[in-house]
Design a protein that fits this description.
The protein is of the alpha/beta class. The protein contains four helices and eleven strands; from the N terminus they run E-H-E-E-H-E-E-E-H-E-E-E-E-E-H. A hairpin with a 2-residue loop joins strand 9 and strand 10.
Length: 200
């Protein structure tokens, strides 16, 4: 099995993380290496994927400035989502030539990793087709992890955002992932336990 370079970077400005992803993606493609896996957190930002609608941003620029939330338009698939402290953001920059050239399988694999991770906390998580991501509470599904990737030259970038001890009210400023009738939750909200940086 091929090994990835892994780093956990703490809190990183989103624009810096984005530039790093682009540079690493190019490096992986040019050098034909297996890839990298980055874990980090971000200050509050909203990111809009290729399929995003500006109508899904529900507040004006004054509110965003007051709350210190920036906006970025990026290459990943999907609609609008939120990143902020207390959320684990994972960027698997993977050369699919070393694995399988199947983007849908890659997405399902990311979901599976998160589902298995949440079992460690005795949280039952699941997929909810046709949506991409990870959900909890089958009776009234709530998203706990958003996933949106881009692929260029069979190298993936962007990734997933798993809500651990995230400030959930910020999700009220958007229609998360463009899904009107489903909520968003966090591991802290489910278990009642705040998770420090060391526990995440």
């Amino acid at each position: 099995m091929e090994k990835l370079w892994f780093t956990r970077a703490g809190q990183v400005d989103y624009s810096l993380a984005h530039r790093l992803q682009l540079a690493l993606r190019e490096k992986v493609e040019v050098e034909n290496t297996p890839g990298f896996f980055l874990l980090m957190e971000h200050p509050p930002v909203f990111t809009l994927g290729r399929g995003a609608s500006r109508d899904h941003l529900l507040v004006d620029e004054n509110t965003l400035e007051k709350e210190g939330i920036r906006i970025y338009e990026v290459e990943r698939g999907g609609d609008i989502t939120y990143h902020g402290p207390g959320q684990i953001v994972g960027y698997p920059i993977i050369n699919l030539n070393f694995w399988e050239k199947d983007v849908h399988l890659f997405l399902r694999s990311l979901e599976e990793v998160i589902i298995r991770f949440l079992r460690r906390f005795e949280v039952e998580a699941f997929r909810l087709p046709p949506y991409t991501g990870v959900w909890v509470r089958r009776e009234t599904p709530q998203k706990i992890a958003a996933i949106g990737i881009a692929v260029k030259g069979w190298v993936t970038y962007h990734g997933f955002a798993l809500n651990i001890s995230t400030f959930l009210p910020h999700f009220g400023y958007i229609v998360p992932c463009g899904i009107i009738d489903k909520g968003v939750t966090s591991l802290e909200h489910i278990t009642g336990h705040f998770y420090s940086l060391e526990e995440r």
